[in-house]
Amino acid sequence: MLSHVDSDGRPAMVDVSEKQVTSRKATAVSSVRLPAAVVEILRTQGFTTAKGPVFQTAIIAGTMAAKRTHELIPFCHPLGLENCRIEVACDDAGIVTITCTVSVHGRTGVEMEALTGASVAALTVYDMCKALSHDIVIAEIHLIEKTGGKSHFHAGERG
Predict the structure, then answer these.
(1) Strands (E), 69-116
(2) Among residues 6, 15, 91, 127, which one is catalytic?
(3) Is residue 150 scored above 60 in pLDDT?
């Protein structure tokens, strides 16, 4: 049975009231491919565009999004996040890597919050740079680690 469907086949939020409160943490990564010309412009401008500082704005937007995930994704529980850390780096090939780590002590995991934070941060990089080029590609968004609760996950491992 799917977790978000009740016994009558109707959509339903998962009841977590009987679950143990545990320390839960999740990390997600997104990547944005920037054209070489955009990377050159950004490097010469200190990664700032006419809209402002690109990476700092992405960090703020991603953090705001992680905190509001329950308003965006049906059946996500509202969580009082205890920490949300977003790191942004651009390599020499123009790949911007955004890592979002979220943690809470609660009855449900924070995978969706980490994924949402990484996703919105990537969208913000796109928005901040789209005046320079529309050949920007948000390449992938994926969970790389989850701890707490009944199961743990680390990308590339089973369990």
Answers:
(1) 83-90, 95-106
(2) 127
(3) yes
